[in-house]
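seq/struct pair 1
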Amino acid sequence: MFAHLRLFCFRRSEPFHAALEGLLRAKFKFCARQVSSSRLKSLDCVISAVALPYMNIQKTLAEIHRILIPGGGLSLDLHLPSFTIAELLHNAIPKPIPTLFRLYVMANGLLFHCTGRTVGFLKGRTESFQTERGMRFALNRAEFVNLSFSRATGPAGEMFIVEARKSKVIGSLAA
């Protein structure tokens, strides 16, 4: 049925992806880090299960937009602010280095909320939480359309799910 689809996923999850490949009869490509533009051509869909919060979001979205075919889809599972707060309160405090890093993640999340951009920490490591406002900024800047935001309950708490499409129209007159 969907055998023509070329999908790309971050962070391989064997049971989930094996079931999805069987259901869709489509093959997936997997990547543990940011998208490698030299290895990918045009994809119908990119699915990221909690990988984007650990990347330079604006650069990654621009690259995903570049590799998607016109009309291609994007599905993201992201970190809400409550995830970062729980990490700070339950896993970082009172340890100084983890607490400092979690405070950076919170500040980076606030920056992302206000601007749709993130900044790296020491040695280029990046992490942030995401909000609908920040994702709207970032997705619009990367020229995605048909933005959709939802929340669902998952095994680790509330999940923030974002979906978008690359416009079928090429250029800045996209709708």
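seq/struct pair 2
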Amino acid sequence: MSGALQYLSDFPHSVGESSVGTSKVLAGIHVPSAGRSTGGSWLSTEGRVVLSHTVLIVDDSPLIRHSLRACLEQNIDWEVCGEAENGQIAVEKVKVLHPDVVILDLQMPVMNGMEAARLISGIAPGTAMVMFTIHGSEQLRKDARAAGVRDVLSKAERFPDCLLASLRSICNEH
């Protein structure tokens, strides 16, 4: 191994564990996204390397996907690695992209978010999931948690603040 990747491999894993909001920054090193660390990937931003978490956005509405992407891309702690318009595509993308977090809508064609969460939990148990839906009953929260979802957020809430707080919380649990 040579170059920046070797240099980063010399760091203890605690560098990657500093997590959201307190990410360690290594000045002047360019490491491609393929250089993944525990809980995120190394990205170069303005000559700095920061730890970010990869996110897969899953919603049947292109407008919602676009809004979520725009919200996440304003923050260097998050890298949107892909999008899917239904649960079946999401499951396939999780197998290929290995995101740290999946944001799932509940009601989608082909495969709903609950079934996708169950399958994702089986194939990628380390992947955190947040359900982002217009529904918000206590029974839904219970069913979602049983399927491996860590948090259920309402689309009616102030979504940027609630979503980012939820993502930070679940990523700090790792």
